[in-house]
Each structure stands twice: as C-alpha cells, then as structure tokens.
Amino acid sequence: MKLQGIRVVDLSLFLPGPHLTMMMADHGAEVIKVEPPSGEPTREIGLRHNGQSVWFRNTHRGKRSLCLNLKDESQKAQLLELIDNADVFVEGFRPGAMARLGLDYETLRARNPRLVYCSISAYGQTGPKCLKPAHDLSIQADSGTVFLNEGMDGKPCSPALPAADMTASLMALSGILMALLRRTETGQGDYLDISMQDSLVAWLPNAMGPVFAEDRSPEVKQERSWGGNAMYRIYQTADGRYLTLGGSELKFAQNLFARLGQPELADICRQPPGQQHEAIAFLERAFAERSLAEWESWFEGLDVCWSPVRLLHEALEDDHLQSRQMVFVDGEGNRHLGVPIKFQREPAVVDTRLPELGEHNAQYLSSGEPA
User: Does residue 219 lie within any of the structural domains?
Assistant: First the structure.
C-alpha cells in the first residue's frame, strides 16, 4: 500500500483530522490516535450500531488508541519518545495549546527534523480571529457559504454537508503528502497551518464571478449554479418528489425540449442566468405532471444531465455506489463508507477494527500503564 511504513501520531478530535488520518490508515499508514482520558468525543456522539458510534466507526477504523493525560509530565514524555520515530503529527487544537503543552512544532522539530507537523484549526494560526472558537456551521456562516445555501423562501438554510470540516481534511491530506514527497529530496519535514476557513473559501472559484468582477454578492437564485439557469435547477414532480437538471450545455437543452415538444424553448437557455424565466416556468409545469418514477422511465436513453433527488438511504443502496464499493459490510454486519481513492496498483486494504480506548498503551508506551 502507498503509505506503508509511514507512522502518524494523531491528537486531533471530531472530524477533519480523524477523517484525514483514517484515509492514511486505509492506504497503509500506522495511525496512532492519542485520546484524552475521556476518550475521542465521537465515541459517544450520534446513533450506535453493534455497540459503536457510527460516526466513530467512519473516522477511526484501523487505528491504534493511546489514552494519555498530557498534563502528566511522565505520560507526555512517553508521547515525545513516540513522536521521535513518527513521520507525521496531526493536531486540531486552538493556536497556542500545543506550545503550552510543550508539543509545538519547534520543540518537536528539534527532536525529529523529519517530522511533518500539521495543525488544523478553525481560522488558522495567525490573523485577528485565530483564537475564536468555531465548528463547521460557524465557519460556513462566516465564510459566505450559509448565505449561498439559500432556500426557495429566500432564507439561509443549515448546510447539509460539513464542508468546512471536510475541505480542511482534504487540504490537510494534500499538504501532508506534498511534504512527505518533498522530504524524500531534502530529508526535512515541514509545518502545515491548515485553516478550515481558508480551505472552504478556496473551494469557491465558481461563486466568485459577481464578487471579483462586479464587487457585489451574488443574487443566489439568479446565478447559474443555484437556480438561475433552467438546465441547472431542482424541479418538483407530481408525487411531491424532486429531480434535478444538472448540465447547462446547450446540447442538453436542445435534447430535452425537443423530446418535450417545445424545441424553440432551448434558445431561451442561451440567455444569461436569471433571464430564463419562460423556460423555467415551462419545466416547472411539465415536471409537475408526472411522478418521479415516471420521469425516470421517460429520461431513459435521453442524453441530458439529470438525476432524481434521492433520499440518503436510497442513494447509498444504489447499484452504482455498491459496485464502486463505496458502502460495504464487514464480517460483523457493520456498514462502512468505502475508500474514494482507488489505485490500480497497491489499492487500499481497509482494516475495519476499531480500537478500544487506550487499547494500545502497552504496545507503544514503555510503562504500558493506561492514563
């Protein structure tokens, strides 16, 4: 596997850090999760199955668990010895917390110059808001994406995805892998300052037209990506379900309106977003005349970007995701999210075992005593 031989020490909690280190574990890294005496919080958050939190199962498979009280100097000294032989160190605390514990980058670099040290925080290690507490929703609100997630009533909605958490996870993973690659040439590690807000804002290039070109915020429902384009929009069907059109290329509009018996309406889709009201109104009426199942049959074989709005449970049972092994069941009947990074050579080998709190203290710590 691609990351075999890489040792990761992970002090992060909740979602961004644990998710990225799980992806590393899936591809062969030895991931040592350091938990406080109270344990990783997600052990106790949300619904449980077979005695384990589903959230914890989807972020901690294949890891080792150490339970340490880092305010205890002897236990911290044992952790430092472990980090001396690590390749990657991940933490997700507020700026300054690691320095107070004597686990800051400069201290660890002096002991292990090859260490790749990754800090993930809400706002980054510098700037006026660096010490401000925040989780995903607050970051999304502060960064404009809650505003972009506007409902049809014109009010902002709670985002469906933890986008700030997950963009930070993927940016951190990318940065860590870059640093490990560079280390093969220089022999030196590096320090990564990953901000959830930075990561989220960097994922908005398609939203920046009005901001950068006209120095204004977008009128959300008039923009191409959020309802202003007839061919990139959500429509309700006769049975109260929904479908989406998701491709605004003119050829798709021509194909759709031709089959609907109104080929002339395709020309309206040449207009800028926000000026396609006649086409939108026609499609709203048309889609409201049949059930979602009827539309699924109707669209069969038609070259148009469209999809039904599936319930989450429906989506995960779809044949395609099953064939891609993005949901799989282990020997104990637990369902897991699959591995999205699929190598032809050296594919991931998922270890679905979950560590008990402090299970590996004896293996990694000289005293073998739990915290």
Answer: no
CB 27 within 8 A of CB 3: yes
Residue 117 amino acid letter: Y
- Summary count for the chain: helices (H), strands (E): 16, 13
Catalytic annotation present for 165: yes
What is the predicted pLDDT for the residue at 367? 54
Q: Cα 273 vs. chain centroid, distance in angstroms?
A: 29
In the predicted model, what is the mean pLDDT of the chain?
A: 95
Give me the catalytic one of 10, 26, 142, 165: 165
Q: Is residue 332 part of a domain?
A: no
| DSSP state at residue 94 | P
Residue 276 pLDDT > 70: yes
In a domain, 88, yes or no: yes
- Give yes or no: residues 192 and 305 share one domain: no
Give dist(CA 262, CA 336) in Å, integer. 46
Q: Tell me the pLDDT tens digit for each residue of 172-188.
A: 999 999 999 999 999 99
Instruction: Determine contact, residues 80/111, Cβ cutoff 8 Å.
Output: yes
